[in-house]
Amino acid sequence: GGGRSEYWGGSFGATLLTMVPVLVRYLGMVVWPRHLSPAYAQPFKESADAAVLLSTLVLLAVIASGIWLFRRNRPLASWLGVAGITILPVAQLVPLVTLMNDRYLYFPLLGFAALMGGGVTCLADAIAPWGRRGAVAVVLLLFLALPWLTHRQAKVWQDATTLWRHAVAVEPECGLAWLGYGHALMTDGYIPQALSATLRAYELYPQDEDTLLNLGLLYKRLQVPREGRPYLLALVGQNPRNFGGWFALGENYLLTGEKAAAEDALRRALALRPDEPAVAARLAELARGAGSKRN
Q: CA angle, 38 as apex, 32 and 41 as ends, to 5°?
């Protein structure tokens, strides 16, 4: 679908209410980029609560500041306009598959950077010559904090486990963050810990297909496939065209000796991907087993 989604919260109005605090949160990230995450759990808003009202006041203050700046310094105000225009494509007026992302700020940051640089220049011009050095020193001290924050954030991206561990610490209500953390732990071989993280993801978003599939695979790794089967059945029930779900379900039945059910699931997987060698190999194993019994 090219990244398109349904409106967040179920309607255009709910999406607008939800995005007002998000836009203010973006402003905070521009000024002081802390608590960044590869995934966010922004609560949906169906009515104008205190967070929406306060965020609306902040946005109105920014707009009023832009009008004031436009009347006094149009070239500088144009950079604020660049930031505002470039945030519109990701402001969920046309809903996208993810509500909020750090990368959605990449283009708006061009406008904010020029605005800040131009603002410092204008401020220096407005200050008496004897005070300029002190003002520049204060600005430099503030900016020196940013490389430190960058260094801290770069360490988060050391590997998948450190990244998603950070994500669940920053956004503990984000199902995608817990899913990523569980997958990273599973890749590293920490299966019980991975199961705990993925179950948390399931609590937060029980319809997520990747979460359901990973739960089935984790219980298989723990050698208790029957406990993972309900998640796989739920997966293929809500999406009968999920190849991974049918294949994992077929292997699940194989492990418990239910060969007829295994063959049915594997043939459904084969119908979705006729050239998949892994499915053909499992069906061949089943056929050899049936043949040896007849002999």
A: 85
Average pLDDT, the chain: 90
List the structure tokens of 46: 């169906």
Instruction: Give strand pairing partners of 4.
Output: 96
**How many whole angstroms from its chain centre is CA 89?**
18
Residues 30, 65: contact at Cβ < 8 Å?
no
Q: What is the pTM of this model?
A: 0.83
Residue with structure tokens 């359901």?
Answer: 212
Contact 77, 69 (CB under 8 A): yes
CA distances from 20 to 25, 32, 58, 125 (A): 9, 19, 10, 35
Write out pLDDT tens, residues 156-172.
999 999 999 999 999 99
Residue ranges in the chain assigned as alpha helix (H)? 12-31, 50-72, 74-87, 106-126, 129-156, 160-170, 175-188, 191-204, 209-221, 225-238, 243-255, 259-272, 277-294
Q: Output the pLDDT for position 290.
A: 55
Residue 11 backbone phi and psi in degrees, to 5 = -155, 160
Q: Using CA atoms in the order 5, 6, 12, 16, what is the torsion angle rounded to 10 degrees?
A: -50
